[in-house]
Amino acid sequence: MGTTRALGTRIAVLLLACALGCGSDSDGGNAGAGNAGTTGAVGGAAGATGGSGGMMVTSGGAGGAAGMAGGSGGSGGAPGGTGGTMVISGGAGGMTGGAGGSGGMATTGGTGGGASGMGSMGCGNASPPADGMQTMDVDGTEREFIVAVPDDYDPNTKYKLVFAWHGLGGMASQIASGFGRGGYYGLESRAMGSTIFVAGQGLPTSNSVGSGPGWDNMGGRDVAFTAAMLEWLRTNYCIDNDRIFSVGMSYGGIMSNTVGCALGDDFRAIAPMAGMGPRAFGGGSPCTGQVAVWITHGNTDTVVQYSSGEASRDYWAGANNCETTTMPAGDNGCVAYDGCDDGHPVVWCEFDGGHTVPTFASEEVWAFFSQF
Prior knowledge:
The chain has a ten-stranded mixed beta sheet with strand order 3-4-6-5-9-10-11-14-13-12, with helices on both faces.
């Protein structure tokens, strides 16, 4: 069912002016929930960064799953439950699930570890909607988006989910077809059937660079659209709730920054390219949750100034409590900041060029997303 729409007329303006501003509880005890490994009433998550503790405990109060470097070797809260059966998912950034109370068994961890997390409501749905162009009403406005599902889609397999956003004047169909680079910024071919992709269609907007479809998030409309798409996708398809990502260039880079801030409890990582933000649009509301970030910007960009990319980088490095020092990351001159919160790295990729997607982007972005 993989969707790749015809390219149509290639729109030259993938631009954005920088002038515009951007588990459930069991019967016997509570699974821990909260950043910094907060403890539940009877056996919560013990991890250093924990984040949402155990996603679900099937019965009894097994302690919540530990976060990265969790507690004492990944064990649950001290009292634990009384023999809960199984912890389904580790905490966000978890290495291993918490051992739980006396006798509880746990699976390997959540989004920071190697195992996949909780599946969405759509898991097991033997008749999901056909992929391709979809429409929905969001607060009285008809919105469009394209979904690409792997050809061998299995309703009992949890799939990663990647949102890919177009630039100013762009179209969702162009992102799906990939401008000759392969669908969804070249990521679809690298995913090898592991991922569901979605490309939203922006609404008319304008700025000093030009006009056309974009992501000005006026009145929060584009964040609401993203949240509605997420709900629809989770209801209809089997989505790995711990592996939801965002990528985009220019206006799409700003949109990635925007959703990473506004919907950080849902998105695991973002990859903004030639963007700005995260609060370029939608006011100064505090960000929610926490995301890992890969970011790139050309050092001669005159559409979205290079300094705007640096400002985004510095924001995310601060939000993830990174140090100011870096070390090389990958093979294309990227650097990773030292000391970031466990499971929430920040990678910066400066390149010699202007307002464009660098040739190494798909390789580096996919490698970054794949670590989670």
